[in-house]
Amino acid sequence: DGTSCVSVCARCLAKSDGVISIQDNRISIWSVGDLGNVGLNGEYQGEPQLLCDIRHNGDVMDMQTLSANQRWEKAHYHVDRDASCGGAACTGVICSNPEIVTVGEDGRINLFRADQKDAVRTIDNADSSTLHAVTFLRTTEILTVNSIGQLKIWDLRQQRNEPSQIFSLTGDRVPLHCVDRHPNQQHIVATGGQDGMLSIWDIRQGTMPVSLLNAHEAEMWEVHFHPSNPDHLFTCSEDGSLWHWDTSTSVSEKPSFLHQGGRSTTYFSHNTINQSVVSAWLSNDPTKDRMEITNLIPNQTLSVNSLDILGPCLVYGTDAEAIYVNRHLFA
Amino acid sequence: SEQAAGEKPHCELQRTESCKVQVTAEGGKGKALCGEGRPSSSCVFVVRKDQDIYIQTLRKLFNESHGIFIGLQRSEEEFAGKSRKTQLVQVSKNYRSVIRACMEDMHQAAVSARDPALHSQYSTQVSILSAMELIWNLCEILFVEAAVAGPLLLRLLDWVRLHVCDVDNMVREVLSSENPSKHELFWNVVDVFVLQGRMDEARHLLSKEASANPTSVNMCRILDDLMKKMPVPSLGNTQTLTEMELKWQHWHEECQRYLQDGTFASNSHMESICKILLGDENAILEKKELMTTWYHFLVTRLLYSHPTVKPMELRFYAQSSMDLFLGGESSPEPLDTILMAAFEFELHQVIKECSIALSNWWFVAHLTDLLDHCKLLQSHNLYFGSNMREFLLLEYASGLFSHYSLWQLGVDYFDHCPEYGRVYLELHIERIPLNTEQKALKVLRICEQRQMHEQVRSICKIMAMKALRNNRLGSALSWSIRAKDAAFATLISDRFLKDYCEKGCFSDLDLIDNLGPSMLLSDRLTFLGKYREFHRLYGEKRFSEAAKLLLMLMTAHIAPCSFWMTLLTDALPLLEQKEVIFSAEQTYELMRCLEDLTAGKSDKQKFQDDDVETMKVEMLRLALARNLARVIVKEGTLEGS
Predict the structure, then answer these.
(1) Is B405–A61 a contact, with Cβ atoms under 8 angstroms apart?
(2) Complex ipTM
(3) What is the pTM (predicted TM-score) of this model?
C-alpha cells in the first residue's frame, strides 16, 4: 500500500526483525514477526504488522536508521534557500552514528550530527551535477557518485572543499546512481549506473574501474554488498529485476597447489573464504572465476527501487507499491 | 466538449453513451467550462476531480489488478478450449479476491476511523466494493465460465450463499445457543438453510428439533428423508440432465403426496418448508425478509422448480422474480438493473449500466478486458473508431495519470491499447510534473523503451533548462548528453565561457576536466574542453604544447570567432616568454588570425572600439612582430635549425 516504495531498510529493531519502508511520503516501521509462520517457499505467510508511522513532507528518497529524532529543513536547496520553490531533492543519506551525511540534487554535501540542530559542515557546490548517492569509505571519508559518471572521495577532516580523489568511467560519462563499499576490504567499491552496468573499482589504484559488468537493462538503483557475506552482492533496477551476484564459488576454486608450492602465502589465509585478501571481485580471469548471477524476481513488472539485506533476510520495494520480504536467502 | 478533453488530466469527465457530460458540482472545487458546438445548446460543464484514486485502501486494488491485467495480456493464447477457459476463470477469481481483500481493508479502516465523515465514506466504499464483487461474480458464472444447465444452478447457489450475509448473525446466534430448537429464531434459521439449498445444515437442525420435541419426530424424519433424497445437479459427468430431471420429477411427486396427505398439517413451519421444497412461489415469497433480495428469490425458485434451468432461460425467471419480489412497492435500483442485464445476457447493457453507476472506470475497464479475452464482445466500433474495450481502458488509464504515483500503472494499460494507446501515452507522459530527477529518469526510461524520441528530447530539454536556471551546469550537461542535444550543449558551453570571461577563471572544473567522449557532442563543447586543456598545459608549463593547441583552436575553426580576441590575448604571455615558443610558421598564422579578426570589423566598429581594444591590438601586433624577429634569427642560426 502507499506510493511507489522508494526505499527500504532492514534492521533489527530490538529483538524482532523489522522493516522500515517509505511510501506515500510516510515512513513506516513494520514488524515482520516471528519465524512461526513460514510457508512453502520460506515466505512469510502472515501480514506484517505496522508498528509506527511518520508523515514526511515531499518525496522520501533514502533513509537510514538512527535512534535519535531530528529534522533538518531545507538542507538541500537551489540558489535561494528561502524561495518557495527553491528546495532541491535530497537524494542520498548515510549515517554512522552520530554523524549523518546527506547529498542532493543541488550538488551539496551536508554533514549533520544527531544531537545538533544545525549542520556541522556544508560543502556548497561540491559537484556541478546532481549527487546521487553517498556512503562512508572510512570514518572520516565519504564516497559520492554523480550524474556525470564520477566517483569522488571526500576527506571530511580537511577543510578545503575539494574531493581528495576523482574517479571516472571510461567512455561515456553515464550517470552513476548508487555506490557501496565492500564491508571488509575498504578499497573495493561497487557502483551502478544509468545503463544498468555494475562497476567494481579498486580505489587504491588507477582512476578507472577494475571491471565493468553488463547487468540490467535500465538504471541500477541500488547496489549492496552483503554485510556479513561480502562475496554476495545484490543489485536492483528500473527494469524490475533484482540480481544476486555470487562469487563465493569462484574463490573456493582457487587451486591449493599455490599454497603448497612454497610461494608467499600472504595472499591466502587459512580461515574462511571471506578472509581472502585477493577478493573475487577484483580478479578478472574469466577462466578461473565463475560468478553465479540469479534474478530473484520471477514475474517482473515495475521497477525495484530499493533493497536491503541483513543476515538471511532480503527486503525490497517496487513501484507496484509493494514490499517483499525474503527470509531465506541462502536456503 | 473538445475544450474539456484538452484540459490537463487532473479532472475526469463522466460520459454516458450519448456523450452528454454529467454535471456534478463538488463544493466549490468545480471548474466551469462553457460548452461549444451547436448554437442552440449552451451547456455548462462542471468538471470533477476523481477522488477514488487518492483513497489509500483502493490503491491496493489498482496495483494488484494491474499485475493481474498484465499477466492476462501476456498469457499464452495457445491454450485452446477448456484449458483457456480454466485460465480465464482463474484470472476472474484473482480479480475477485483482490476486490475482497480491498473490502476487508476498507472495512477495517471504517471500523477504526474516528472521524464520522471518514467512517461513512469508508462504509460506502465497502458496500460499493461488495456490489462490484457481486456483479463480477455473476458475470464470471454466466460469461467467463459460461456454466451450462446443471452446474449453472450450483454456481448460482454458491453465489447467493456468498453474498447474502445479512442473515449470518442470526444463524450464528441460534447455532451457538444452548438449546437451538428452543430459540425463537430457530425456524427462521432452518428456513434460511432451506432457501439457500443448504440441506445438510437444515437436516442437522431438524435432528435437534426431533430430539427436543418427541411429538414431531415422525414429521422430522420424513422431512429429513425428503431433504436427503433431493436430487441436485452434479458437477461431474455422473449423470445426464435427463436422468436428473427424471429423478427430480419422482422426488417432486413424493413431496406432493406428503403435503396432500396432511403429514405436516400439525406443524406450520414444516408444512411451509415442504411447500418451499415443492417450489410454491407464495410460500417462498412469504420468507421475503430472510432472502432480502430478488435474486436470492430467483435462485431459490429455480432450485425448487427448475433446477436444470438453461442459461438462456434465466431472463424470464429473472424478470418475473424481480416483479414478484418487489411487488410494485419499490422500483429497481441501479444494482438490480445491472444484474437483470446480466441475466438477460446483455453484455453491453451491463457495461453501460456499470459505467453510469460507478464513480470510476476501474471496474468496467477490467471486466470488459476480461470479457474481450473470452471473445464475447463483438468488435463493433464505437463512433470514434476504437472498440469498447480500448475505450474503457483508455479512460481508466487516463484517470490514473493524474495521480502522482499511479501513472506508472497507466503506462502499461496504454501499451495494451493497439489503436490509440500510443498517442494517449505520448500526450500524457509529457505532462507529468517532474519534481525530482528520479521521476524524470523513470519517465525517460519509459519513453526510450517505446522509441518516443520527441518526448525524450522535450523532457531532457525541460530538465536541462531547469538545471541551468538553478546554476547546475553539470546536471544540465548530463541531460543534454542523454538527449544527444547538441544545441543545448552549445548553450551550456557558452554559459561556461561567459562565466570565464566575467570571472577570469573556470567554474566547475571537475566537469570540464572530465568531459571525456561527450566533448564531441557539440563544437562549442569541444572548444571548451580543449580551451581548458590549454590552460592546464600552460599551468604545467608545457608551453610549446600549449602554443600548438592554442593555434589549432583558431586555425581549425574550433573556437568561435567571438572568442578569438581572448585567445590571442592568451597568446601574449607565451609570446613574451624569454624562450621563443612560437615558430615562424606559427607566428605568421597568428598574425593572419589577427588580421582576419581586425579586417572583419567595419570602420564604424573600429571607431566604436574603446582605447583598451585598440591598445590590445597594438600590443599583439608588437608582440607578434618581436616574436617573429626573434624566431627568424633563431631559426636562421645554425644551432637553432
Answers:
(1) no
(2) 0.77
(3) 0.79
